[in-house]
Amino acid sequence: MGRFAVDVKVSNNTDVQGAAIGALSPEKIRTTLLRGVVDSGAAKLVLPASTVTQLGLNAIGEATVKYADQRTATRPVVEEVRLELQGRHGTFSAIVEPDRTTALIGAIVLEDLDFLVDSTKQCLVPRDPNRIVSEIE
């Protein structure tokens, strides 16, 4: 497992799509930059509640989360999170953590954006620098 920090841009994807069709001015896209902790042992994207509020993301349900110390809690899940990382982007759902100040970038995001974790150099490496490679049967 690797854990290290990266800069990440998150936006409300509904705003991004509205701007793409001309229904929303691009300046009105709710977006923010924040530090993200890459954790290849985590599964999902986790965002601070303050970021979710700033982006105006809506909860679509709840998830039970399990912490490293074996505690569990119920947390809201939001959707339509556009995440940009090292020139690649995707749209994800995210778990909302009330006291968190950084994003947590788990394996689902890393796989979808096709990044390999270089734990020695503490960085993300695209498998192919020109495009995302997707394995299918």
User: Helix and strand string, N-terminal first?
Assistant: EHEEHEEEEHEE
Going by helix content, strand content and strand pairing, the class is alpha+beta
Query: What integer value in Å does the Rg equal?
Result: 15 Å
Helix content: 10-25%
Q: What is the number of strand segments?
A: 9
Task: Give the amount of beta strand, in percent.
Answer: over 45%
Number of helices, counting only DSSP H or I runs of 4 residues or more: 3
Report, as a whole number of angstroms, the end-to-end distance: 27 Å
Identify the CATH class: Mainly Beta
**pLDDT < 50 stretches:** none
The CATH level-2 architecture is identified as: Beta Barrel
- Give average pLDDT, whole number: 95
Query: In terms of quaternary structure, what is this?
Result: single chain
Q: Looking at the structure, what is the overall shape?
A: globular
The domain count comes to 1
